[in-house]
Amino acid sequence: MAETARATETTVDGRERWDAIVVGSGLGGLCTAAYLCAAGRRTLVLEGHYVAGGNSQVFRRKHKGREYEFDVGIHYIGECGREGVITAALNGLGLAERVVFRPLDSDGYSTLHFPDVEFRVPFGWDRYRNRLFETFPGEREALTPVLDVLQQVSAAGHRLQRGELSMGDIASEAPVFLQWGLRPVTDLFAEHRLSQQAGAVLLGEQGCYAVRPSDTPVVMAAGLTDHFLRGAYYPVGGGQMLAGRLIEAIRAYGGEVRTQSPVHRIRIEKGRVLGVETGKKNRPLQEIDAPVVVSNADLKRTVAELVGDEHWSPETLERIRSLKMAVPLFCVYLGLDVDLVARGMPNSNHFIWGDYDIEGVYDELDAGKLTSKAMCYLTAASLKDPESRHLAPEGFTNLQIMTLAPREYDVWGVDRGPADGGRYHRDAEYRRRKEALVEQLVDTSQQLIPDLREHIVWKEAATPVSQERFTRSTGGTSYGIEMSCSQAGPLRAGPRTEIEGLFLCGASTPSGPGIAGVMRGGVQTAGEVLDRDLLAPILAGNVLGDRSLLPELDETWDAWRESH
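Predicted structure:
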């Protein structure tokens, strides 16, 4: 039960004072703030953009009297079933019945397209195994031990995340996890002489974390597979629903979310947090006091810019500077004047790979090259939530296409990123390169929708430079610090830091990227602030939030407007 939140406080010189401030409104930050508020800590969330939600937000566009809504980052998610961590995190705040999840096609929530193999990924490990055996009948002896390891590692990882298994018990209870967890998944494939084709199919959805195979820890590959085999879902009402409901809870439990309120500095004195300095462009800066600040901002910018090198130990600075960011994405948003639901297109994601050599794709990306062999990912929100009129008008379709992109700015003809003052949007060369990739992705997508081009009535695209502009993420990645063998789990930063009162949450922390990862991490960071374990009781079904404080459900409620 939440304590009653106190009224807004001010210091003797008129400055605002809060119990905690969260910098950035990604789902990790919102989840942290919501749990702090539910525990009676008056918490303020400050967001620089005009819509809260970080990578979970949506944006709307009007064209010829018709409106479209596009997801930035939520395309399909796991952990939404009865025992899922997302379900538990929402339930712990009294929000479980306020977010409904619709499953994707259970016989093929994702369809993988390779040069001469098409593979539909079904729910459940047993169905998955059998379909792999049917697809690669000559590799049953190689696939069986590989799948055994993946399933055992994922089961142990799942138990670790839920607090059902301690690190001290791994050697006796989960020796396979200890043996394989942080080793490259390509080592596992090589040990059992798995073919390149079968290995590529096993990694066909790896764009969800974007790490080259030879640097992908088995625990990451296994965890992603298990994550979706337990059930792949989409929130009814669109991706903004999660952020909107968390914001609703923050406000109901005595906190506040302010958009268009960028934080310029986290104030530190004598090794401890004092608060933040915030203010809009060309406006006087405002100091807000709080003994606790949680950064949901980009890790590297938090350390170097929001806090400053002078407040960190040399060892921390060296470590953070050495961390490598994940590969970014390029996204195309299309409005189509055709109804793909009426055409009978299944509710499935589609991954088109131009080659089985996924390692080679990353070689080209790391060399700063855009490659036609990289993943082309198609997803239609209109198939996942066909009743929603926000997504697209009746008879129309909301379609998104994505691919992996290099980290370098010069790929786009840009000298420096927007976070450092670089201008790019109207640059002719930038626009030319961007449009060329859009056309390439549309061409590739016509393998699945042959008449796609003739039905496009709205088209927009976002490069990694766009991502950096709106989220200030280093290199324009959606995934934070790369989840590679040398940067996984306890090798990552946070949630507690060496500065008293400063905490971290988000994709770069040990909980990792992805919606479930950052929400679980948000609960854990709130627990660190409160100095108690929140995750175990939440996963056990406990509710910290007081549902009676939440507003009544309203059919006209709009998650996007709630997030302003």
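Summary: The longest strand covers residues 329-336.
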